[in-house]
Q: What sequence folds into this?
């Protein structure tokens, strides 16, 4: 099988899962939205989004479905089954609609839009995202005050999915440190090599840099622009 990926949040998650499971897949960097590439990838995913798992003459898209497939193939409990499955599904469902969604809103404004020159930061959207982040993080803070992982006593895919956008917090600047139990949980996750650096050894071009923010304390010299 082949896993088509990029360095963006959801493809990163899929690669982290595959590396954690030591999945028997070939990794291939892909750019479906690059000029002239759409028709190559459209038969694999009509949405042109990554990741895509290709094998046996068919493709599987959507990160959660790929994680489920790879975990089952590896006979791993990363994707919980049996009595623990409803608990995992609960956190997947809640997390995507609350914590991860709030992270996504802020990251899109402060990260994605700036990387790709989509437009200026919408501060109203950032404030909405931060408000929702604080509400969701408070729920996680309470949960992690009683446990180390979301499901029972070991890492599960629910932990991976919940943390989808946190590796990009250098640009999103979410106030994670305001929630000590959540911060401790994420530090535990970063101790896992596959999560901390899923692209190690792979041909994976870096994302475009986010332009540096202007220093609000710097006094601008009006003559700086005169000579340019």
A:
């Amino acid at each position: 099988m082949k896993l088509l990926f990029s360095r963006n949040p959801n493809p990163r998650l899929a690669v982290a899962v595959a590396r954690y499971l030591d999945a028997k897949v070939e990794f291939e960097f892909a750019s479906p939205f690059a000029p002239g590439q759409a028709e190559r990838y459209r038969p694999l995913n009509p949405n042109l989004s990554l990741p895509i798992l290709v094998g046996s003459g068919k493709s599987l898209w959507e990160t959660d479905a790929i994680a489920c497939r790879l975990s089952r193939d590896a006979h791993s409990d990363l994707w919980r089954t049996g009595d623990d499955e409803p608990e995992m599904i609960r956190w997947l469902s809640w997390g995507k609609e609350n914590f991860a969604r709030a992270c996504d809103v802020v990251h899109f404004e402060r990260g994605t839009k700036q990387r790709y020159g989509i437009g200026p930061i919408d501060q109203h959207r950032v404030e909405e995202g931060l408000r929702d982040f604080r509400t969701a993080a408070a729920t996680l803070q309470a949960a992690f005050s009683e446990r180390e992982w979301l499901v029972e006593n070991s890492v599960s895919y629910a932990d991976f999915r919940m943390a989808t956008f946190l590796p990009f917090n250098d640009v999103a600047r979410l106030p994670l440190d305001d929630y000590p139990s959540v911060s401790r949980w994420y530090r535990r996750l970063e101790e896992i090599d596959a999560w901390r650096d899923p692209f190690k050894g792979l041909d994976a071009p870096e994302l475009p840099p986010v332009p540096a923010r202007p220093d609000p304390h710097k006094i601008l010299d009006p003559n700086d622009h005169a000579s340019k």
About this structure: The two ends are 53 Å apart (CA to CA). Confidence is low (pLDDT under 50) at residues 215-228. DSSP finds ten helices and four strands in the chain. The longest strand covers residues 2-5.
